[in-house]
Specification:
The complex is a heterodimer of chains A (520) and B (234). Chain A has 520 residues and is an alpha+beta fold. Among the domains of chain A are: 67 residues, no CATH class; 82 residues, nitrate reductase domain like (nitrate reductase domain fold), CATH 1.10.3650.10. Helix content of chain A is 33%, strand content 12%. A five-stranded mixed β-sheet of chain A has the order 13-12-1-15-14, with helices on both faces. In chain A, strands 2-7 form a two-stranded antiparallel ribbon. Chain A has a two-stranded antiparallel sheet with strand order 3-4. In chain A, a hairpin with a 5-residue loop joins β3 and β4. The longest helix of chain A is centred in the C-terminal third of the chain and has 24 residues. By secondary structure, chain B is mainly alpha-helical. Chain B is built from nine helices and two strands. A two-stranded antiparallel ribbon of chain B has the order 1-2. The relative contact order of chain B is 0.14. The chains are: A alpha+beta (520), B mainly alpha (234). At the A-B interface, α3, β8 and α23 of A face α2, α5 and β1 of B. The complex binds iron/sulfur cluster (SF4) (2 copies). One iron/sulfur cluster binds next to α1 and β7 of chain A.
Chain lengths: 520, 234
């Protein structure tokens, strides 16, 4: 047993309102630089829809992630090492920038400098790739809120095996929002695809980073990641990706996307895993077993054996304490209501999703269902978001898993409704979904009330080790010329020495302060 | 021996070699972040899909050809019993194939860079110089292979002229007369090549040294400690 800690995230899709605050704040901090105009470390897409880049989920097209070879051994879907080296001059699976979108800006100058006239001047879109006027034909959330989906949504890879069932007629349409960041996978195919050895997973917290000094721009990480969450900076010629805001995480602060999430849908916490068991767990033959095998590599932070092994590995005691209180461990492992995104990619993603339940409520109300557990479960089977669709997204097509989770969420609502509205304690509900009433109440507090300190249980990096760390140049993901920097944020630097803050009183928006958690 | 000859065949080569060595030392120490293939595949992938592999494989084969042609003395091939004629045909045909593949690839890449606005915009001034030098070197090289070696009844014997001079540079006793007496096309090719080597460390050509062969023997997943920095496999 080799105990390691992983910083992991849960997103409660039930509560995402699709406001894109997370995407915008992330972009402001990390990717508002030349070469990353098209890059959104955090993006929010509408489901059903094509996503960003278009059809990223279709691995027959992009060939990301892992698959099993004839002998049942894990191999990269994009091909082995020799194949990579021989195709290094033209990566056959690289997306084109148009698969994301052509980034644009507007020529605001014409508006500002326009002479007095009867006609309002117009700022026209200009491509940020060529500088020339352009037509906007696609964007990172083009099919937002089902816009134009009658034309595009049927190309959603998740609908491939369920065309008949799905009605795109407006009155029967369903949709939900899917915010996405890098999954900081336990078995990251981006790392495995990088010929230079520039990508790595951090031993302490599992964050996956690109060493900007070692990256040579071979681009295999971009095609190797099935979630398309490594991006090629076309100005620096290097790969970049979500850093899980590690300068903040090391300070015990949530990521920018979490901190600013309007719907309060995000949770951050530690899970402990057995690093020796990853390959085996990612290689189970049946895709539908992947969820269970993924959960089986997690270690119980209350288990004395695990505690002893963790101490041996040098995991600090306060980290263990945080692991015990982890909302991620509660939601994904203890209660199993959070599911991994596309477990069939076999990368063991570490961002988990609570599937959306809301449309059931409206069905309930319309059809006059009472808050009776039997009816709740019946309603869940006839809810608007087809369970098959959620299963294709979150459980490798296993509808049973989705139904189980939705039943738990439904039971939680039914229980709390009786308690809050009728003042009754219905002890019958919880056992039907294999939980206790106390657990349902805790789950309610975590999911519905979602207090800040319950959502984010993040231990600080140990700064006594951090002092040594600052001497270690080259481990830093993004502290380079023209990069967003912040690798030095552990040592409180004066704001003026930071590459990302032009001057201390620029516009009163002090990024360093926010990064260090000065504001919340 | 004129001053011009000394400059072209002694000073220029040594200055270029020195620039090459010191330049790499400097670039390696200070320019890791800028050390990249500078790929533009994200912008355009159709033409690149065939042109880039053709160019690179052709160029790698040509590099191999140069190593043989410049480093292996006639005495060696004689000693292993390879007839002069055999050697010449082998070199000319292999060189012609490599050259042709490389030229077609290069034409594709130049066409792509010139006509695709997105790719053109990523082009730096150094890139332009590199492109011009490479085009001239390869153009001359292919001319030499085809017109002066392959499709002629009296092929030019560079092994007893240019190659002698080239090797003599590394024994620090430059054989100037071997070079001054050589075919003019070969001379121009050699002079331009020194410019190429001098520019090498300051351009994106350095990505040639990054051929990631270490990938073959390495574990799939790499871990690094935030504090200890040791690259460790699973
Ligand atoms: S989601 Fe993140 S860690 Fe996983 S393969 Fe993609 S880039 Fe790597
Ligand atoms: S900020 Fe929160 S609620 Fe808004 S889109 Fe992002 S994840 Fe959803």
């Amino acid at each position: 047993m080799k105990v390691r800690a992983q910083m992991s995230m849960v997103m409660n899709l039930d509560k995402c309102i699709g406001c894109h605050t997370c995407s915008v704040t992330c972009k402001q901090v990390w990717t508002n630089r030349p070469g990353t105009e098209y890059v959104w470390f955090n993006n929010v897409e509408t489901k059903p829809g094509l996503g960003y880049p278009k059809r990223w989920e279709d691995q027959e097209q992009y060939r990301g992630g892992w698959t099993l070879d004839r002998k049942g051994k894990l191999k990269l879907k994009g091909g082995g090492k020799i194949k990579k080296l021989t195709s290094i001059f033209a990566n056959p699976d690289l997306p084109l920038i148009d698969d994301y979108y052509e980034p644009w800006t507007y020529d605001f100058e014409t508006v500002v400098n326009a002479p007095l006239s009867d006609i309002d001047p117009v700022a026209r879109p200009h491509s940020q790739l060529t500088g020339k006027p352009t037509e906007i034909t696609w964007g990172p959330n083009w099919d937002e809120g089902l816009a134009g989906s009658q034309e595009t949504a049927m190309d959603d890879p998740l609908l491939a095996d369920m065309q008949e069932q799905v009605r795109m007629a407006y009155e029967q349409a369903f949709m939900f929002f899917l915010p996405r960041i890098c999954e900081h996978c336990l078995n990251p195919s981006c790392v495995a695809s990088c010929p230079s050895g520039a990508m790595y997973k951090r031993e302490e917290d599992g964050i996956v980073l690109v060493d900007q000094d070692k990256c040579r721009g071979w681009r295999f990480c971009v095609s190797g990641c099935p979630y398309k969450k490594v991006y090629f900076n076309h100005s620096t010629g290097k790969a970049e990706k979500c850093t899980m805001c590690f300068p903040r995480i090391e300070q015990g602060q949530p990521t920018i996307c979490s901190e600013t999430c309007v719907g309060r849908i995000r949770y951050l916490g530690l899970v402990l895993y057995d690093a020796d068991r990853i390959e085996e767990a990612a290689s189970v033959p049946d895709e539908k077993d992947l969820l269970d095998s993924q959960i089986s590599v997690f270690l119980d932070p209350d288990d004395p054996e695990v505690i002893a092994a963790a101490r041996e590995e040098g995991i600090p005691d306060d980290w263990m304490e945080h692991a015990r209180r982890s909302p991620v461990y509660d939601l994904a492992v203890r209660w199993r209501v959070a599911l991994p995104l596309h477990p069939e990619f076999r990368t063991m993603p570490m961002v988990w999703y609570v599937p959306p339940l809301s449309p059931v409520v409206s069905t309930l109300e319309l059809d006059g269902y009472e808050a009776d557990p039997d009816d709740i479960f019946g309603a869940i089977d006839s809810m608007r978001i087809p369970q098959q669709y959620l299963a294709n997204l979150l459980s490798a097509g296993d509808v049973g898993v989705i139904r189980e989770v939705l039943h738990k969420l439904g039971a939680m609502r039914a229980y709390m409704r009786k308690k809050e509205v009728l003042g009754e304690h219905d002890e019958e509900i919880a056992p039907q979904v294999g939980m206790t009433s106390a657990e349902l109440e805790r789950m309610y507090k975590l999911l519905a009330i979602a207090n800040y300190e319950d959502r984010y249980v993040i231990p600080q990096a140990h700064t006594e080790q951090g002092a040594e760390m600052m001497k270690e140049q080259g481990s830093c993901g993004l502290d380079f010329d023209g990069g967003p920097g912040n690798c030095g944020a552990v040592e409180a630097k004066p704001a003026s020495s930071s590459p990302i803050v032009p001057s201390a009183d620029d516009d009163g928006f002090d990024l360093i302060k926010i990064l260090q958690g000065g504001k919340r | 021996m004129s001053a011009g000859a000394v400059f072209l065949w002694v000073i220029l080569p040594y200055v270029a070699i020195a620039t090459f060595l010191v330049g790499h030392w400097w670039r390696y120490r200070t320019g890791q972040f800028g050390w990249t293939s500078g790929s533009t595949q994200l912008m355009e992938r159709k033409i690149l899909g065939w042109a880039s592999p053709m160019f690179h494989y052709g160029a790698l084969a040509a590099v191999g050809g140069h190593v043989i042609g410049l480093m292996v003395p006639v005495a060696f091939t004689d000693a292993v019993g390879m007839k002069e004629n055999t050697y010449r045909w082998f070199a000319a045909i292999a060189g012609a194939v490599a050259g042709a593949v490389c030229v077609i690839g290069l034409c594709g890449l130049i066409y792509r860079r010139a006509t695709n606005a997105r790719v053109r915009r990523t082009t730096s001034r150094t890139d332009l110089v590199v492109y011009a030098l490479i085009a001239a070197l390869i153009g001359l090289g292919v001319w030499m292979t085809f017109a002066i070696n392959l499709l002629t009844s009296s092929p030019y014997d560079y092994r007893s002229s240019m190659s002698l001079w080239w090797r003599s540079l590394f024994t620090l006793r430059p054989n100037i007369s071997a070079a001054t007496g050589a075919n003019t096309v070969y001379q121009v090719h050699a002079i331009l090549a020194w410019g190429f080597w001098a520019l090498f460390p300051f351009s994106r050509l350095v990505h040639a040294w990054s051929m990631p062969l270490q990938y073959i023997g390495r574990p799939w997943i790499l871990y690094r400690s935030r504090y200890a920095q040791a690259g460790r496999g699973r």
